[in-house]
Amino acid sequence: MEYAEKVNYSPNPIALSLKENKSRAIGVIVPEIANHFFSQAINGIEDIANKRGYHVVIFQSHESYQREVTNIQHIIARKVDGLLISLSGQTNDVSHLQEIQQKKLPLVLFDRVSDKIEAHKVVADNFDGAFKATEHLILSGRRRIAHITSPSLLSITKERLMGYQVALEKHQIPYDESLVKYCGFEPEEAKKLIFNLINEQKPDAIFTTSDRLALDCFSAVKEQGILIPEELSFIGFTNLKVAHLLAPSLSTIVQPAFEIGQTAAELLLDSIERKQHHVEEFRTIKIPTEMVVRNSSQILLQNS
Question: I need a labelling partner for 232 at 20 to 30 A (CA). Which of 49, 76, 102, 125 fits?
Answer without folding.
Answer: 125
